[in-house]
Amino acid sequence: MRTSTLRHSATALVAVGALLALAGCSTPTAEGDSGAPAADPESLVLALVPSQDQDGLVDTAAPLTDYLSEELGIEVTGVVSKDYQAAVEAMGAGQAQIGFLPSLQLWQANDMYDASVVLQTERNGNITYPAQFMTNNPDKYCDDAPVERDGMLFCNGADAMAGPAGLDSIDKVKGANVALLGPGSPAGYIYPVLALQEAGLDTDTDINQIPVTANDASVLAVYSGDAEVGFSFWDARSIVVKDTPDVGQKVVVFALTEEIPNDGVALSSDLSPELQERITTALADFSDTEEGSKILESVYSITKLAPANPESLDVVARAAETLGLQ
Hints:
Signal peptide: 1-23
Strand order of the largest sheet: 2-1-3-12-4-13
CATH architecture of the largest domain: 3-Layer(aba) Sandwich
Protein name: Phosphonate transport system substrate-binding protein
Radius of gyration: 20 Å
Family: Belongs to the phosphate/phosphite/phosphonate binding protein family.
Keywords: Signal
Structural class: alpha/beta
Strand content: 15-25%
Pfam family, one: Phosphonate-bd
Shape: globular
């Protein structure tokens, strides 16, 4: 991967401070003052970046951290970052050793801090996914009649569930209230914003930005009418369907972006190769069990963890660079 210096917002630095306080422990560097390799830590911190409402995420992930603690013989504690960049900075500062990160942050952790990208996720057998454009006003954005798939409505060919689709319709977003995540989110910001700009929109002036903190919040903003359009990963509507059973009828997906590499797992360069291998094996084995797969699906909508292809992440870095985010 190429090397670059990435700029980070003040918000990210504030957020990482909160994460570091939660972590509450430090990790020795890979080499001590004498230049000899330092011992592996007696405890590990797993940084989680929420793709949905973070409330209860650590508790939901507890079976995973408990499993890792038992398999490794090292206490593993989960912490939740409120900001995508915060988890990357926590790994760079030695305050988190395992990161479940979106694709851009996987690239950054490797590029900035030499973290090892060891695993990427599979969702329903796929290693990539599109960002989706959602609306509560299908009459405006749908060029054809919405079709239903598994209780969810799609139009403009988005029912194919693979991007790109329906992008000819996104210029209609001009003037709308749009729910979007922070700039570190590939699906909630980078790819949809890039698509809008390529469609000729000035995303600073041509849309009314409604900031949200997670993918489920974007869905709910559209569902409630706070936003006419929202961005999220495909298909974030499934996160909230339990509490809002009619979300698939009221929130219609009308466009999909280009495919995005899946998120995954990065390990701190402070850890010995032997411990990195043990963590990687333990996580992959956990995802192969029925119970583990269910836990990972509840945390991140993951069905399996597979060996990573770090080079596949370059496309996300290039998209971020096009938007001036690095």
